[in-house]
Amino acid sequence: MSLQVFMLPDLGEGLVEAELVTWLVAEGDTVHVDQPIAEVETAKSVVEVPSPFEGTVATLHGAEGDTLEVGKPLISVSAPGAAVPAAAAQAPSPDVAAAPSSGVGAASGSGNVLIGYGTPGHGGPGRTRPSRRSHLRQEPAEVAAGAAPQRRVHLVVSPLVRKMAHDSGLALADIPGSGADGLILRRDVEAAMAQAVTPAVAPALAPVPAPAGPGSAAVDPRTGLRVLARTPLTGVKKAAAIALSRSRREIPEATVWVDVDATALVELRAGMKAKDGTAPGILAFVARFVTAGLARFPQLNTQLVSAEGADTVVEFDGINLGFAAQTDRGLVVPVLRNAQGRSARALDTAIRDLAKTARDGKAGPAELSGGTFTVNNYGVFGVDGSAAIINHPEAAMLGLGRIVDKPWVVDGELCVRKMTELTLAFDHRACDGAVAAGFLRFIADAMENPAAALADL
């Protein structure tokens, strides 16, 4: 058949659904192999989905904001030169192949989509994605008499612009672009946001009238208060909610903590910065001490697996160190793989790069999964401690509080020192309290005497 249906692929790590953020094509548009057709948000990241087919878009199976299941239709594409059947476009028959390997499908595209790498077997080695603008500028040679004009795709290059529009509830198709060829720029979205907000200012200042009757507004039965909004959890926040609930439900965690005099570490870093102009961050030093501590206490770098009624502790040859990071999309944990043996400077560079990638929304499943131990620097939020929830299915998480001046006794004398608090939450099935306390004490000692610790590493 001439109609090709592209099913939403598994975008990595066994994900079962994705939220449709933005359509990059419209029904009636001409698409080419490897041309991005949509942006979808998974529990891991926002990714572009390229088309495995060439032809004319017959049906978009979903609206922006919808949650789509993996394996269900994403887009239907009519083969080049074939008419778009209206009935088939609305309800493709079961015998339509999702990704044919021969016939029309083979001529139009490979059907074997690898997210981020395009489709193989389309002319030559490497990626050959055509220019997005070149496709968007194409106009049909002639329009059939009486046919509706083809809707032109909105020109957007920056993922930031798309995200701003999506987060503000604006449709890109309704925003006029001021850039070259109608390109939608950041200032265009900001102007549209201002226009959307301005009319609502005056009513917002007026007092809200009381509901006219019991059916005029939803009332929460437990509190008796009027419900202002209901927001479903999606994407990263939904994944985090599932993981956190599972951790609390399955892991019998215990917590140990200790006050740490970090004065020597702060002074060491200040001296390095004064001498060389740069120095690793405190978090990088802590990460270096963590990898050394896990080598001495490997029970904390494990995973407990329950299957068929039996519990098994899995030990790893290496350390994949996760770092909790707050982003606009929610809490994520980018993972630095094989962190063992790296210097504090190398760890500092890697941590900064990972954090930037995650906050820019560019981290994929490979960067946001596979951790064996997590460090949570909640001190950046100005707090001293936290009863952390272990990042399931790991065995432990180390928390680092803020560093502040506090009175402390040193050699029998009361003085002001740079103090912080370390907290370790651990799975009590994976290790005993003595192991957890020994690991935490090792990190604390290294922070209080960093020169000696680094000399031995």
From TrEMBL:
Lipoyl-binding domain location: 3-78
Pfam hit, one: E3_binding
EC identifiers of the protein: 2.3.1.-
The keyword Iron appears for this protein: no
Top-level taxonomic group: Bacteria
Statement: the UniProt record of this protein carries the keyword Transferase: yes
InterPro entries documented for this protein: 2-oxoA_DH_lipoyl-BS, 2-oxoacid_DH_actylTfrase, 2-oxoacid_DH_E2_comp, Biotin_lipoyl, CAT-like_dom_sf, E3-bd_dom_sf, PSBD, Single_hybrid_motif
Peripheral subunit-binding (PSBD) domain: residues covered: 156-193
Stretches the record annotates as Disordered: 115-148
Enzyme class, first EC level, given as a word: transferase
Record key words, sorted: Acyltransferase, Lipoyl, Transferase
One cellular component (GO) term of this entry: cytoplasm
Cofactor(s) annotated in UniProt: (R)-lipoate
Sample GO molecular function, one term: acetyltransferase activity
Annotated family: Belongs to the 2-oxoacid dehydrogenase family.
Name of this chain's protein: Dihydrolipoamide acetyltransferase component of pyruvate dehydrogenase complex
Organism the protein comes from: Arthrobacter wenxiniae
